[in-house]
Task: structure prediction
Amino acid sequence: MLNCISRGALAAPFLLAATAASADPAASIKEVLANYANMAEAGYGDALKAAEALNAAVGKLVAEPTAANLEAARTSWIAARAPYQQTEAFRFGNKIVDDWEGKVNSWPLDEGLIDYVDAAYGTDNPENSLYAANVIASPSINIAGETVDLTTITKELLADKLQEAGGVEANVATGYHAIEFLLWGQDLNGTDAGAGNRSATDFDMKNCTGGHCDRRVAYLKAVTELLVDDLKWMVSQWGKDGAARQAVLTSEGNNGLVTIFTGLGSLSYGELAGERMKLGLLLHDPEEEHDCFSDNTHNSHFYDALGIRNVYLGTYKRVDGSDVAGPSLSDIVRAKSPETDAAVRKALNATIDQMTAIKARAEGGERYDQMIGQGNTEGNAKVQAAIDALIAQAKELERAMAVLELGKANFEGSDSLDQPEKVGKN
Result:
């Protein structure tokens, strides 16, 4: 299996018990919510700047398609992931973010929709009629009975017609991972060393490899510009009068705190520990990793974990080195129970330690897809240790919610954790 395959959404909610009602001072809650919104604005702002730098690097690549410029674009893509992944802590509760997120970070994807693929990928998939549609090589495609003209590849075409075409989530046409595939190509190495190895000449209209280099260039330019547009929009939502900021600041009672905890717990448990880590470990599948073309998954997981800790502690270090900091969940929990706050902090730090160990291992030569490979006892254990830390972290966040009497927590779940016997069975 050579592609980043799609998987069904079988996750069940991770229900955690707590009690009702709250007596937290409204003023301190408002301060926490305001700092949370400030952190979101700063985080998405950094993600935007990094995407603009990526767009500039792509511009240089398509103007002069050399190996050096391709490598520079790849480096910019990896750099752009660091601030964005830290913003994932604002998901799973903020409706504006949740409704938007799929535009920029959907995964896994059936990359045959976009461009040429290795013969082993296959030509059809019973769950996706566009599995190998190859937009770059096609003048038109049929989507649910409608003939869609592909003559000109534009941002509007990608966003309005091709993203999740036919209602299939694996038809990812926009965002970071579509760009990743275009820059690296498929990773055909399985659990052996190596990432995707697309040639710069795939973008060279004078010395074209892969065919249709003019259309591949058009796609790469459009999808990268669209990422910039989408991030600009999200930054505005967290600005002074932005809808996402106002939704948090004007939330009734303790709903704002519940939103924050729900995001942290859901990312910790169902999404990161479950869908992004345990699923791939159970299947020993090198394609069930978040950044599967670039082999950058170790960084994505690390920065997700860092983003969770940032939000709980109420502090974010911007790319320029400046700090955004203020009243936090930690402050409110500590006022009620210093022991509970200390336990949450300890759990957050333990997760960071485990993610740091994975990151160091990857940077030392054994990438994440190799770590989850069958028979790699030590690598599997490293990944499982991080999963265990994330689960423990979610439990401590549950206890903090109980201390604050925020009601029953409802964190996103994952069959890979809750019903592992279902994994791999259709």
